[in-house]
């Protein structure tokens, strides 16, 4: 403890560097710092430990949420983003107690409650740009509806929406919900920008549609030519099932030609198979599929 008071940063670095050596193991150091009521020193030690080796003090991560909220608020959100082993509900309660709204937004979204997170951004942070950014990240149409509903009574927020959401939602959805006689700053300029942004989206979609139609037409032409092209069969062509020549035998025999180019005697094709699939291609495809499946299984082991 005397070392801490003389130079806490140097002492923390020393304790962390020798964290695997008795008597400086993490559990022992935490116990000593906790028992002497030097909570701020405990925070410095656990913070330094987390920066050096995030897994070394994993059992204290929940405690660190309270410590960061009390002694080092700016590091709380990066800490929450980095940790996956913290009970989210308990972390949310700590952030609520300390009025850490930005951290609460992150936790609520991570807990699967984006609407509550969005409401917090609007009502507590009062940041329309952040609310729009949040809705964009979530990519949920219902969230855009909630954003409009929560913002429509605030003229400043309406201006922010008009200036920024033209490329993400139908502008009429927003305009129709603006109450009559609402005084909105720079309404004219905002409406012009909104419609321009929306027109850009319309033009992009039309351009993409034309490209897709052109590609589809080109591919259909290519397929038509391939299906209509001749396949040469000579006396050396063999049946892929029995290995005998398809033509040139004394007996008259039917044969089946698939689009893949493989040829079979009519008698060698499984007549019960209504799909009349090429046996060689079918076996090859099954083998490829089995190989990919085995590769994925080995990769996940």
TrEMBL record:
Stretches assigned to the RING-type domain: 239-281
Keywords: Metal-binding, Protein transport, Transport, Zinc, Zinc-finger
CHCR repeats: 17-160
Recorded GO CC terms: HOPS complex; late endosome
Alphabetical list of Pfam families matching this protein: TPR_Vps41
Entry annotated with the keyword Endoplasmic reticulum: no
GO biological process: cellular response to starvation; endosomal vesicle fusion; macroautophagy; protein targeting to vacuole
SMART domains noted in UniProt: CLH (SM00299)
Record bears the keyword Metal-binding: yes
UniProt cross-references to InterPro entries, sorted A to Z: ARM-type_fold, Clathrin_H-chain/VPS_repeat, TPR-like_helical_dom_sf, Vps41/Vps8, Znf_RING
Gene Ontology terms for molecular function: zinc ion binding
SUPFAM superfamilies, per database record: ARM repeat, RING/U-box
Listed PANTHER family: VACUOLAR PROTEIN SORTING VPS41, VACUOLAR PROTEIN SORTING-ASSOCIATED PROTEIN 41 HOMOLOG
Protein name: Vacuolar protein sorting-associated protein 41 homolog
Species this chain originates from: Geodia barretti (Barrett's horny sponge)
């Amino acid at each position: 403890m005397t070392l801490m008071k003389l130079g806490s940063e140097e002492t923390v670095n020393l304790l962390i560097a020798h964290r695997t050596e008795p008597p400086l193991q993490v559990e022992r150091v935490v116990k000593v710092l906790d028992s002497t009521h030097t909570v701020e020193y405990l925070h410095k030690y656990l913070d330094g430990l987390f920066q050096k080796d995030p897994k070394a003090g994993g059992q204290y991560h929940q405690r660190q949420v309270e410590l960061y909220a009390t002694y080092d608020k700016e590091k709380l959100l990066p800490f929450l983003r980095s940790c996956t082993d913290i009970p989210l509900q308990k972390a949310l309660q700590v952030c609520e107690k300390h009025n850490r709204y930005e951290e609460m937004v992150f936790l609520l979204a991570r807990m699967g409650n984006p609407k509550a997170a969005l409401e917090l951004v609007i009502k507590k942070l009062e940041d329309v740009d952040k609310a729009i950014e949040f809705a964009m990240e979530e990519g949920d149409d219902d969230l855009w509806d909630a954003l409009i509903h929560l913002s429509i009574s605030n003229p400043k927020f309406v201006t922010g929406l008009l200036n920024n959401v033209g490329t993400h939602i139908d502008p009429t959805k927003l305009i129709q919900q603006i109450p009559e006689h609402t005084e909105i700053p720079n309404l004219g300029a905002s409406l012009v920008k909104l419609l321009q942004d929306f027109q850009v989206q319309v033009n992009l979609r039309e351009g993409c549609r034309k490209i897709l139609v052109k590609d589809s037409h080109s591919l259909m032409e290519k397929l038509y030519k391939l299906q209509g092209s001749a396949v040469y069969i000579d006396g050396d062509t063999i049946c892929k099932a029995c290995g005998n020549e398809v033509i040139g035998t004394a007996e008259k025999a039917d044969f089946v030609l698939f689009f893949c180019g493989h040829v079979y005697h009519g008698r060698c094709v499984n007549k019960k198979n209504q799909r009349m699939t090429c046996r060689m291609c079918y076996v090859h495809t099954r083998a490829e599929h089995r190989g990919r499946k085995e590769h994925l299984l080995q990769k996940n082991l």
